[in-house]
């Protein structure tokens, strides 16, 4: 979410004592329930199959979708066996008072905010009084933060020190840390973990029918890849926890269910933040209690790191009246990114963009010349680009790629290769809309883009009106609404691109 930079202002550094190591606390905890031996054996076999299935390199297009039912099927079998370990349902809202007391007793002033439930966004913060734009809203000391660094100081530390894969996956470290602390009734962070949502709307919670709702959108492939990645991670870390002696005393070891893992991964994905390490030399990944109760809106970053106070500070994005929801800006992400990583999309996303995969065909007789020129622009011959919402749908990288993609042999040979190889200025010019290679090339660029965007518009399985009515219908599922809102945004970007290309072609005609 918010970007954190170092900032020196006055603060109360004396409060910042690290929490006691929870490895000691774990020793006092009652053991959580375990699966019977036979069930454990069945899970271990399914996990081996899952790891094998997910470890095959992901294939694009239809193949990716073809693999998904098998992966999903194995995961569902595992979940069924492990369902006996599910903890009793608990009410999140009942835990808020203890959470606020915990914050207050650790030096957090919560007087300006209150936790409340809001339509469409879940729980969030509301103002308890008039708050002015740029006024300091919250200050959360490091000792309350739940970070990769704090994970290393618990019983997870030895496992992190041993496993090379874990060391390069800070988000997984956080997820395992969260699960281990959740199982520990003595955890310092218990009041925080108790108020986390019990489930999420990320695609990790979707079934095959839900994923089908994304048909026509490139986000469908992203959601399937995410599911595959998390299933693979689950299988890998399941085996690691069973086999590695450094994991033998972890509470997590016998409670590492897929349900728990997708919950922990989603908790981390939807709430994580980069936090400068204590010495400022690097960033660590972490969760920031209370600050992470703020929901997102368009705007600018208003969070900062106060190095002197060793605390995260959040300022008001705008004026807020009493009882009004306090919103912050998470960052410039597209609706597709928000859907896959945060489980939501919203209508007025100023930073919405649509992924567009493009490549020079290996069968193109000019492949070598075009690839060489693209290399000089630091672009591979095939990659994903983005079409943007707003006045300028095409950015410099996409424009340069399309110009090279559309170049004829003569132009390539006489202006862009060998002795006529372009210098830095000519390369920059390829990214500049106000310059052109020649009018024929320019016409090809905009015609190609117009056709491609029109085809993508036609590829959606339903109309704009259908999607708009899904949003209006009270009985539409949350996933159906999300998929419709996503497509509405994508269609707007594609239609804007078609119109923009048309205008560019008209301008070309009138200038020739
Ligand atoms: C950091 S948490 C914010 C607190 C969260 N609403 C809760 O109940 O714990 C981020 C999550 O809040 C929800 N959210 C935040 N901003 C939203 C928005 N503009 N529209 C819909 N959901 C939103 C999404 O579920 C997202 O994953």
UniProtKB/TrEMBL annotation:
Class in the EC hierarchy, top level: transferase
Catalytic activity: L-histidyl-[protein] + S-adenosyl-L-methionine = N(tele)-methyl-L-histidyl-[protein] + S-adenosyl-L-homocysteine + H(+)
Enzyme Commission code: 2.1.1.85
PROSITE patterns per record: SAM_MT85_SETD3 (PS51565), SET (PS50280)
Record's keyword terms, sorted: Actin-binding, Cytoplasm, Methyltransferase, S-adenosyl-L-methionine, Transferase
Residues of the SET domain: 111-331
Biased composition (Low complexity): 17-29
Phosphoprotein listed as a keyword: no
InterPro entries documented for this protein: Rubisco_LSMT_subst-bd, Rubisco_LSMT_subst-bd_sf, SET_dom, SET_dom_sf, SETD3, SETD3_SET, SETD3_SETD6_MTase
Subcellular location: Cytoplasm
SUPFAM superfamilies named among the record's database cross-references: RuBisCo LSMT C-terminal, substrate-binding domain, SET domain
Stretches the record annotates as Disordered: 1-42
Family membership noted in the UniProt record: Belongs to the class V-like SAM-binding methyltransferase superfamily. SETD3 actin-histidine methyltransferase family.
Annotated protein name in UniProt: protein-histidine N-methyltransferase
Organism: Aplysia californica
Organismal lineage: Eukaryota, Metazoa, Spiralia, Lophotrochozoa, Mollusca
Gene behind the chain: LOC101862990
